[in-house]
Amino acid sequence: MKNNLSNIKKAINYLNKDKCVGIPTETVYGLAANAYSSVATAKIYKLKRRPKKNPLIVHYYDLKFLKNDCELNDLFLKLYKKYSPGPISYILKLKKGSSISKFVTNNKNTLAVRFPRHPIARRLLKNLNYPLAAPSANISTKISPVSPEDVKDEFGKKLSLILDGGQSKIGVESTVVELVNKPQILRLGGISKNHIKNFLNLNLIYNKNSKKIKSPGQSKTHYSPYIKLRLNIKKSVKNEAFILIKKRKQKNKDFFYLTKKNNLKEAAKNLYKTLRLIKKKKYKSIAIERIPNVGFGEVINDRLKRASYFK
Ligand code: TXA
Ligand code: MG
């Protein structure tokens, strides 16, 4: 579906009828539904086959509706002014009397909120009188989608409307920052941990402790192509896909470049797209060159580690 006004109108129509719609965001595509409706949000869990205990991120246009749903603290307002709209989600305290469906929060008193920057997502949100719950538009634990075709791959005919916003510019999910208890980063993502740390002048910890799971993005298996993944590899073996970030002299049909210029931001953008392509080509094993653990490299390594862990 191309991005024209009639398609946005169609999406509004669907959402008003408690249906799910695939929507583009700058991070990854989302599976969106009315966050105030339990009928609509229940459909998200069903389509994604997502465990009910994993709460959803709610997407807002600006602070107008959010004020009815969450307590806004100073740290949040500071970050909001700096980074939103953009690839960051905030965990806030849910307000008593908010209309957010209990399915969204899993009956808890916190809410993950985000203000996407993609113009189609913004246009849609501006024209609705409710915010949108939207997890990544993939079957639970699988690779996140970065194009309308990827969303179609995941849900087929079960999802009848996907808005086309081109390939997601960032290509990995938003950074999740917890601002209710001790401020901390729960998921690495589109805005670098160090950037946020320096901006706040705070020693923000990154809580990657997966024993006590606070966030579904912290589960051990996630973003996974369900193919054997070998990390930090110098030389691949025969018939193995080899993911690279530095240009090699030799040509090989099994080489897949995330970037040829060692540009880690570009590499992150191409990560999920490349994993999906390799899966389509039916490789049985994937080798990955060592990726420096800085900036977007840290995000890529986090996703690869979780993608490589499956039974
Ligand atoms: O970039 C993104 O954030 C994308 C796009 C579509 O906006 N959405 C996304 O949603 O990645 P999802 O459902 O796939 O990931 C959900 C993340 C979890 O990993 C977790 O970090 C956080 O949302 N989460 C949601 N509610 C939470 C809560 N109440 N407390 C802690 N974490 C929560
Ligand atoms: Mg997800």
Describe this structure in words.
The protein contains 10 helices and 14 strands. Helix 9 packs parallel to helix 10. Strands 1, 2, 3, 4, 5, 6, 7, 8, 9 and 10 form a 10-stranded mixed β-sheet that branches. The protein has a 4-stranded parallel β-sheet with strand order 11-14-12-13. The mean pLDDT is 93. The chain has 2 domains: 196 residues, DHBP synthase (Alpha-Beta Complex); 81 residues, no CATH class. With 311 residues, it is an alpha/beta fold. It is 32% helix and 16% strand. The structure holds threonylcarbamoyladenylate (TXA) and magnesium ion.
List keywords for this structure.
10-stranded mixed β-sheet; binds magnesium ion; binds threonylcarbamoyladenylate; alpha/beta; 311 residues; DHBP synthase
Count of distinct strands: 14
CATH fold group of the largest domain: DHBP synthase
CATH architecture of the largest domain: Alpha-Beta Complex
Please, how many helices? 10
The coarse overall form would be: globular
CATH class of the largest domain: Alpha Beta
Main sheet summary: 10 strands, mixed
CATH superfamily of the largest domain: DHBP synthase
What is the H-and-E element order?
Answer: HEEHEHEHEHEHEHEEHEEEEHEH
Low-confidence stretches: none
Proportion of β residues? 15-25%
Helical fraction equals 25-40%
Which structural category fits the helices and strands?
Answer: alpha/beta
Mean pLDDT value: 93
Number of domain units? 2
The radius of gyration computed from the alpha-carbon positions, rounded to a whole number of angstroms, is 19 Å
Each distinct ligand: threonylcarbamoyladenylate, magnesium ion
